[in-house]
């Protein structure tokens, strides 16, 4: 077993040049695919089933002995992800149930040692991502429903049969050692994406800086993102929002998540559950998903859109259809999304703007009018045209802005205009 040596903590985190470059690249990617997959997928009712159904954790763990995802094909996953236009994958290396989806020496409760499948799917996926040029991020649950040393029992509780005593230090070392494995056995990792910190009271000492410094001591360029629903904490490289655009709080999770200065991301489900569900067929439409991607970009954030693969390892057909639809749209409009930053105009009810160099892209998503006012000074503008075919758009200038004459009410999923600035 690896032993964590400690003594890494720095007073103030100063990201390396490589880390800063990776933050820029992360922001340029704009779209990622989130994958929630584990032994819970066999129960086909989401990744919280052990908790929701109050299952005995030892009985639950026996699911592993029946986990044989015969259709798992990392090459197919990665090519589907590429076809969606996504540039990175974030996969659950270990979710709250504590089951590791990678070959770890820190606990036998993992896909290689506890299942008849015996294959390290994270290794296969990492190899394929590196081969096909997709960045790989690891979701890592900081809370655990299977280990006695995850102590004290958190808000989310856990399966039946646990005793509420343990040794936090061994759990902390367990995590550090697993992170060492994740960051040494699978090549370059784009980000570690923590989740579950909300399980303990706010004053609980997770020893985050030790964890963060440990990660950066192994891969200084690796981004640290933590879905803690709070403002960024020192040592982090990005800020993620769950089911909310930055600054919103429709989910109820984001009330304390002040938008900071780090690269932003929002994660969302296509249906309602993260892990595979056989009953949840309520998928968002192609239009809703594209709107969410565009709104994320207009709010200066990436979108991380989830899929819950079936227990046999396939993405559900409808998820593939939706990803392909987003991919077709990005094939045409990607220039107005990839590599952009949130626009100089604040997001509005009618839509958002993105910008890159001297171009501003106006994304009209919802306008009941044939004219649109923009607060951009006319004298700064070289031209305004339809993005798709370059057809000029007429406009009149007033003191503080321009009034675009669109001729008719836009009805495209996203009617994109390109403004070239002088
Ligand atoms: O409890 C998890 C949930 O299962 C899922 O992983 C999401 C993804 O953002 N995060 C947690 C809820 O905040």
From TrEMBL:
<dbReference type="InterPro" id="IPR017853">
    <property type="entry name" value="GH"/>
</dbReference>
<dbReference type="InterPro" id="IPR016286">
    <property type="entry name" value="FUC_metazoa-typ"/>
</dbReference>
<comment type="similarity">
    <text>Belongs to the glycosyl hydrolase 29 family.</text>
</comment>
<feature type="site" description="May be important for catalysis">
    <location>
        <position position="267"/>
    </location>
</feature>
<dbReference type="GO" id="GO:0006004">
    <property type="term" value="P:fucose metabolic process"/>
</dbReference>
<keyword id="KW-0378">Hydrolase</keyword>
<dbReference type="Pfam" id="PF01120">
    <property type="entry name" value="Alpha_L_fucos"/>
</dbReference>
<dbReference type="GO" id="GO:0004560">
    <property type="term" value="F:alpha-L-fucosidase activity"/>
</dbReference>
<dbReference type="GO" id="GO:0005764">
    <property type="term" value="C:lysosome"/>
</dbReference>
<dbReference type="GO" id="GO:0016139">
    <property type="term" value="P:glycoside catabolic process"/>
</dbReference>
<keyword id="KW-0326">Glycosidase</keyword>
<feature type="domain" description="Glycoside hydrolase family 29 N-terminal">
    <location>
        <begin position="7"/>
        <end position="335"/>
    </location>
</feature>
<protein>
    <recommendedName>
        <fullName>alpha-L-fucosidase</fullName>
        <ecNumber>3.2.1.51</ecNumber>
    </recommendedName>
</protein>
<comment type="function">
    <text>Alpha-L-fucosidase is responsible for hydrolyzing the alpha-1,6-linked fucose joined to the reducing-end N-acetylglucosamine of the carbohydrate moieties of glycoproteins.</text>
</comment>
<dbReference type="InterPro" id="IPR000933">
    <property type="entry name" value="Glyco_hydro_29"/>
</dbReference>
<keyword id="KW-0732">Signal</keyword>
<dbReference type="InterPro" id="IPR057739">
    <property type="entry name" value="Glyco_hydro_29_N"/>
</dbReference>
């Amino acid at each position: 077993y690896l032993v964590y040596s400690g003594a890494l903590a720095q007073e103030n985190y100063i990201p390396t040049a490589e880390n800063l470059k990776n933050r820029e690249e992360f922001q340029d990617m704009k779209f990622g695919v989130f994958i929630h997959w584990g032994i819970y997928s066999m129960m086909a009712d989401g990744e919280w089933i052990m908790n929701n159904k109050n299952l005995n954790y030892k009985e639950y763990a026996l699911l592993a002995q029946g986990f044989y995802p015969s259709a798992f094909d990392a090459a197919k996953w990665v090519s589907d992800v590429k076809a969606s236009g996504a540039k990175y994958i974030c996969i659950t290396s270990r979710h709250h149930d504590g089951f590791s989806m990678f070959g770890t020496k820190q606990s036998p409760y993992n896909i290689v040692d506890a299942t008849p499948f015996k294959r390290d799917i994270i290794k296969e996926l990492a190899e394929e991502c590196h081969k096909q040029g997709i960045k790989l991020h690891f979701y890592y649950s900081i809370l655990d429903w299977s280990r006695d040393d995850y102590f004290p029992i958190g808000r989310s509780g856990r399966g039946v049969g646990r005793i509420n005593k343990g040794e936090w230090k061994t759990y902390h070392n367990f995590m550090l050692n697993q992170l060492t494995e994740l960051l040494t056995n699978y090549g370059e990792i784009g980000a570690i994406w923590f989740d579950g910190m909300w399980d303990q009271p706010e004053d609980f000492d997770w020893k985050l800086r030790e964890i963060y410094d440990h990660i950066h001591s192994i891969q200084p360029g690796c981004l640290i993102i933590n879905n803690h629903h709070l403002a960024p904490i020192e040592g982090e490289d990005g800020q993620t929002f769950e089911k909310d655009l930055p600054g919103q709080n429709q989910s109820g999770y984001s009330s304390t998540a002040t938008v900071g200065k780090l690269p932003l991301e929002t994660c969302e489900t296509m249906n309602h559950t993260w892990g595979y569900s056989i009953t949840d067929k309520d998928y968002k439409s192609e239009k809703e998903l594209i709107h969410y991607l565009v709104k994320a970009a207009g709010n200066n954030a990436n979108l991380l859109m989830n899929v819950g693969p079936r227990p046999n390892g396939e993405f559900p057909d409808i998820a593939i259809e939706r990803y392909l639809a987003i991919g077709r749209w990005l094939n045409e409009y990607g220039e107005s999304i990839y590599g952009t930053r949130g626009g100089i105009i604040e997001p509005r009810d009618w839509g958002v703007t993105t910008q890159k160099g001297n171009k501003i892209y106006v994304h009209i998503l919802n306008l009941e009018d044939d004219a649109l006012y923009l607060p951009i000074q006319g004298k700064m503008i070289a031209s305004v045209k339809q993005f798709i075919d370059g057809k000029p758009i007429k406009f009149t200038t007033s003191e503080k802005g321009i009034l675009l004459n669109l001729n008719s009410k836009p009805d495209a999923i996203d009617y994109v205009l390109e403004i070239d600035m002088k």
